Amino acid sequence: ENMMVDIIIPVYRPTKRLFELLDRLKKQTVQIQKIFLVNTEQKYFDLLISGTNFWRMYPNVEVTHISKREFDHGGTRRRAVTHTDSPYFVMMTDDALPADNMLLENLLKPLTEKKAQVSYARQLPDEDCGAIERFTRDFNYPAESRIKSAEDIETMGIKAFFASNVCAAYDRETYNEVGGFVKKTIFNEDMILAKSILDAGYKIAYCADAKVIHSHNYSGIQQFRRNFDLGVSHAKYPEVFGGVKSESEGIRLVKQTCNHLCAIKKPWLIVKLFWQSGCKYLGYFFGKRYTSLPDKWVKKCSMNKEFWEQ
Fold first, then answer.
1. Distance (Å, whole) CA 220 – CA 223
2. Pairing between strand 88-92 and 167-171?
């Protein structure tokens, strides 16, 4: 069937990787109606495309520019959705690359077959990815697909409404019905929406055969800041994250990573694992309690500093 789909990608300080992403999207087996880029700070974008035939190379690309202060994880995506009109739309980030030309087809399948109303892709580690992060990718994005519903919250905890806008497809009708992305959030706009989709009686599909290449080599301090923002979003949305276990999942990951590092004969990396896990835990701990910290500390701890100026 000829599925019409739009793709929305927030962009910031794009590199040549953006061309690679657009080229790979061109080769997809599914026809893309529009690729809508929301670019933060126009000068970086202009610099990247100067001297190229950008608009001729990518005729279905539309770009809107915003300032750094205007960017919000929820609000920016929410506005972008209103610029598209296909029955399905896919959220991506500018650092994720389709692993093959079947990405969109596999990602959209659960939606077109009405088995789920949101689906998200498997994230594979990039070549430069370290052993710890590589294992974390496998842990969060296993080789088996699954469909999740509200009933799974009891057994899976927070993992039941885990979905990632690094690459996720949405059924527009359902998206509109549950109210779309929140207008303002520091992080986690995808999970906040996923939870309301489960609460409305719909389902989320994890598509292991829809694959993107996406990984980060964060330092301990970056992990701290990222998890601080995670904690803030959990504290700001108690109706979404309250009463759902999330720490136990982290402990399980640390134990399994330890075993894995021993199995691949790199036990010395356990020191790094403990340092990074400690940074993650402390970041999350302080983020959840951000209201009792001095304002200037909050901004120092956060990865998204502009969020606090809005």
1. 5
2. antiparallel
Two tokens, residue 154: 């009891």
> Around Cβ 302, how many Cβ atoms within 10 Å?
21
3-class DSSP string for the chain: CCCCEEEEEEEECCCCHHHHHHHHHHCCCCCEEEEEEEEECHHHHHHHHCCCCHHHHCCCEEEEEECHHHCCCCHHHHHHHCCCCCCEEEEECCCCEECCCCHHHHHHHHHHCCCCCEEEEEEECCCCCCHHHHHHHHHHCCCCCEEECHHHHHHHHHHHHCCCCCEEEEEHHHHHHCCCCCCCCCCCHHHHHHHHHHHCCCCEEEEEEEEEECCCCCCHHHHHHHHHHHHHHHHHCHHHHCCCCCHHHHHHHHHHHHHHHHHCCCCCHHHHHHHHHHHHHHHHHHHHCHHHCCHHHHHHHCCCHHHHHC
Both tokens assigned to 111: 């939606």
CB atoms within 10 A of CB 177: 14
The residues, any chain, with a CB within 8 Å of residue 202's CB and separated by 6 or more, are 116, 117, 118, 174, 178
pTM beyond cutoff 0.85:
yes
Task: Give per-10-residue mean pLDDT for the chain (310 aa).
Answer: 84 94 96 96 94 94 94 95 96 96 97 97 95 94 96 92 97 97 95 96 98 95 96 94 80 95 96 96 96 96 90
Contacts of 201 (CB under 8 A, 6+ apart): 150
Count of CB atoms situated within 10 Å of the CB of 245: 11
Q: Which pair of tokens denotes residue 39?
A: 């670019």
